[in-house]
TrEMBL record:
Protein family membership: Belongs to the peroxiredoxin family. Prx5 subfamily.
The EC number(s) this enzyme carries: 1.11.1.27
GO CC annotations, alphabetized: cytoplasm
Enzyme class, UniProt record, top EC level: oxidoreductase
Molecular function as annotated in GO: thioredoxin peroxidase activity
Protein name per Swiss-Prot or TrEMBL: Glutathione-dependent peroxiredoxin
Reactions mediated catalytically: a hydroperoxide + 2 glutathione = an alcohol + glutathione disulfide + H2O
């Protein structure tokens, strides 16, 4: 399992952004090389078990949208939300959650990033397959500086306020 001091894994995520007028992007999903995108930046990264799921939609994403300006004032360059969903679902969720300009909604469609970090959640018995565990991490220049992993079914340590305190610390 990934730990503080480790580099982010070599993985490619996908991002689908809506045009500024709210219409669908014309170029389709775009690859995001994790190591290249994180190089030289401070990233507030959080992962959720699934887009449009109750806790993720009602608390996790809204908390990061709400605290985006404070996180940036604390030195965070970008905020990333990762989920084992496809890029189109993440794009639709971004529109629903009004994350534009605040949180990058990144798809880990085949769970490659989740598997590489060791932060997977097996929800096969619930019809959801292999997902990402819920967690947050502060990443500095591609390396994990803080890591907050939730126990299954919990939402206590991976919230925006906790990561904000760590970014300020």
């Amino acid at each position: 399992m990934i730990k503080i001091g480790d580099a982010l894994p070599a993985a490619t995520l996908m991002e689908y952004q809506h045009a500024e007028d709210g219409t669908c992007a014309t170029s389709g999903p775009q690859p995001v090389n994790v190591q290249e995108a994180a190089a030289g930046k401070t990233i507030a990264l959080f992962a959720v078990p699934g887009a449009f799921t109750p806790t993720c939609s009602a608390q996790h994403v809204p908390g990061f949208v709400e605290h985006a300006d404070q996180l940036k004032a604390a030195g965070v360059d970008e905020i990333w939300c990762l989920s084992v969903n496809d890029a189109f679902v993440m794009g639709a969720w971004a529109k629903d959650q009004k994350t534009g300009g605040k949180v990058r909604m990144l798809a880990d469609g085949d769970a490659a990033f989740a598997k590489a970090t060791g932060l997977t959640l097996d929800l096969n018995g619930k019809g959801l397959g292999l997902r990402s565990n819920r967690y947050s991490m502060l990443v500095r220049d591609g390396k994990v500086a803080q890591l907050n992993i939730e126990a299954p079914g919990k939402f206590e340590v991976s919230d925006a306020a906790t990561l904000l305190g760590q970014a300020r610390g």
